[in-house]
Amino acid sequence: MNAENTTPTIAIVGAGVIGLSWARLADAHGWTVAITDPRPDLAEIVAAAFPDSATVRAAADLADAVSDADLVQENGPERLPMKQQLFADIGAAARGDAVLATSSSSITASEIAVDLDADVAARVLVGHPFNPPELMPLVEVLPGTRTASTTTDGAVALYRALDREPVVIGTELPGFVANRLQAAISREARYLVQTGVVSPADLDTILRNSLGLRWATIGLFEGNVLGGGPGGIRHLLAGVGAQTGGIEPGVPATDPDAMERLVDAVEATYGTGEEVYAELAARRDRRTRAVLAALADTDGESTTR
Ligand SMILES: NC(=O)c1ccc[n+]([C@@H]2O[C@H](COP(=O)([O-])OP(=O)(O)OC[C@H]3O[C@@H](n4cnc5c(N)ncnc54)[C@H](O)[C@@H]3O)[C@@H](O)[C@H]2O)c1
């Protein structure tokens, strides 16, 4: 943080879905925000997204955006050569004590930093949010093999200052943790729809009214403890668990025709296009805020812990 500033400065690199959401989160926390993106309509996008903010600006270029940042949050396209080049450029222009984070869902800090100078590589890590980061508290923090522990500590502190819930993951495995869990459930969901057991709409109804609601309040293992009654997880595994433990996971068809039919069925359920996206996103955000507010109301500060 700059000595003269009382709140941090964030550079948002890439003003797409994730970058603009990080920008809204930082703006809501009173941070100074500089946004960079090569798209020619960047100034219009920033003006439209932040009509009343004196502390959010469209930067002239990448160097201008990152030069004063405490946290650089990169949200460019998910392509390794592009991120490698971006971080070389970011490293050349950013302050020596800035945390250099990528929102990447799949590319690791070790891959990005492979050709970077040691002092830059030491400050690169993954800070992977769940969409949209302005509402979803989780940030998976994955340091690479060359990341300094002070960088990881600094990133955790900065994300906490944004009221996020950072979790440091020590192993750089594909999909990290949250998306691996999502992939496991998605596999079974696709199998159940493809084999005609449920429609896409019914599958979503089942999820929202059971696991979704459960997992908004307590975690999976905490749920196991409660599922076993006073005997806890041991009782659960010996009782109901002994019966359900033998469920064979389904294998969804992944050939192009089967995937096309699945996509058609989901599109027929929810629709497609700009208007549908805006409506569904607004509904998602309203409902997510309602759940978060209800949890904060009932639990106070420790809701997401
Ligand atoms: N969409 C999600 O659900 C989600 C969730 C978590 C993480 N992520 C990660 O966030 C990152 C961004 O994803 P997104 O969904 O916001 O993509 P997006 O396509 O909405 O936005 C990408 C933006 O990057 C810009 N860009 C292109 N080249 C650039 C450059 N050289 N410098 C700066 N910006 C550049 C594009 O103009 C575009 O505005 C990806 O790494 C992705 O893996 C996405």
From TrEMBL:
Ranges where the 3-hydroxyacyl-CoA dehydrogenase NAD binding domain occurs: 54-169
Highest taxon of source: Bacteria
Listed pathway(s): Lipid metabolism; butanoate metabolism
Domain 3-hydroxyacyl-CoA dehydrogenase C-terminal: 175-278
Keyword Oxidoreductase: yes
Keyword Oxidoreductase found: yes
Gene3D superfamilies associated with the record: N-(1-d-carboxylethyl)-l-norvaline Dehydrogenase, domain 2, NAD(P)-binding Rossmann-like Domain
Keywords: Oxidoreductase
Pfam families: 3HCDH (PF00725), 3HCDH_N (PF02737)
Coiled-coil region(s): none
Protein name: 3-hydroxyacyl-CoA dehydrogenase
Species, as recorded: Williamsia phyllosphaerae
